[in-house]
Amino acid sequence: MAASTSSQQPSAPAFSLLNARRPSETFERGSFDNNIDDYREEPTAFSFIAPYENLNWWEKSYIVDWLVGIVLLALGSIIQNIPPPERDFDAKDLDISHPKRGSSVPGSLLWFLATVIPIGVFVLYNFFDTIGKCIYTRERIERNKLFGLRTHDLHNACLGWFVSITLTKVITNTFKVAVGRMRPDFLDRCKLSLITQYCTGDESAIIDGRKSFPSDGIRRFHVPRSLSRD
């Protein structure tokens, strides 16, 4: 008696994050023969999110990111105006007895390094960088170009720079107010009266003299430098 055979269709594998196909698996780098619609029809674990190639720099979702940066900027300015704790000091302390001098690096130069250079790097990179080798990104790049610049990527770079600067401003100003470390020229700013034992110098200079740590120069220079390098 012949054995009965039953035709059974193979069951589809369970869908999970592990078997979801990614753009790098669907399109090989350097290949422009694939149709972009093939990728859109492929189910992915993140199909509920708007495809990246459909995003523009003016998307409403970016409003939240810019609002966060603006709130951080305002919060950092508020914290900056809070006076630090008035710690006791010794008038014979050599660590705070140095003469007051001008800044080694002017504040205007620091802001130039922190603003113009990083944004200039973003613009140059987006202007000279070639279109991505993956056809999946080509349509989005072509649609979002303005004067040869990829507006979406340039916008995201500037947004990241702005949020990084404002977040670092909040962190450094918080530490300045909490620590209240005196600058090396504090006694020269203070102009201590030997009679009243109180500082007689300019009040704003004295307050700034109690905000030595952490350094503003590090905040304004190293954060944009790290962003430009990445």
UniProtKB/TrEMBL annotation:
Biological processes per GO annotation: phospholipid dephosphorylation; phospholipid metabolic process
Keyword Acyltransferase: no
InterPro entries per UniProt: PAP-like, PAP2/HPO_sf
Keywords, comma-separated and alphabetical: Membrane, Transmembrane, Transmembrane helix
GO molecular-function term, one example from the UniProt record: phosphatidate phosphatase activity
One cellular-component annotation, GO: membrane
Domain of life: Eukaryota
Transmembrane segments: 62-82, 109-128
Protein name: Phosphatidic acid phosphatase type 2/haloperoxidase domain-containing protein
